[in-house]
């Protein structure tokens, strides 16, 4: 788990540096670089969001994730949020709110680069 957390910090630093260099080199005027800049910023946010989610998950006892003794089918199980740690955990597990738009921006940047290479505008 420690290596995974360090990887989140390293990736956040790398994406932050990537976005900083795009801005510093004044590449934001070009649409494909602007899309990559947005993707970098969103990936920085995602890494810190996921990092916090992992730390919060360590605060929740394992029993909170185990099925009750009734052996109900998982579709019929209800769950309740018993404390703030569990609330934060479920909020922080929605990290795809950042990765999905980030990958969309990467897609837009690549498609824009391809159209520029083909001579289209």
- Gyration radius over CA: 20 Å
SSE order: HHHH
Straight-line distance between termini: 46 Å
Say how many strands there are. 0
Range of helix content: 55-70%
Strand content: under 5%
Secondary-structure class: mainly alpha
Largest sheet: none
* Helix run count: 4
Which stretches are poorly predicted, pLDDT < 50 over at least 5 residues? none
Q: What general outline do the C-alpha atoms trace?
A: elongated
Quaternary structure classification: single chain
Task: Provide the residue-averaged pLDDT.
Answer: 89
Protein name: Histidine kinase N-terminal 7TM region domain-containing protein
Keywords: Membrane, Transmembrane, Transmembrane helix
Organism: Thermodesulfatator atlanticus
How would you briefly describe this protein structure?
The chain is mainly alpha-helical.
Write structural notes for this entry.
The chain is 68% helix and 0% strand. With 121 residues, the chain is mainly alpha-helical. It has a domain at 1-11 and 39-60 and 83-121. Helix 1 packs antiparallel against helix 2 (31-58) and helix 2 (31-58) packs antiparallel against helix 4. It is elongated and about 65 Å long. The N and C termini lie far apart (46 Å). The chain crosses the membrane at residues 6-23, 35-60. Keywords: Membrane, Transmembrane, Transmembrane helix. This is Histidine kinase N-terminal 7TM region domain-containing protein.
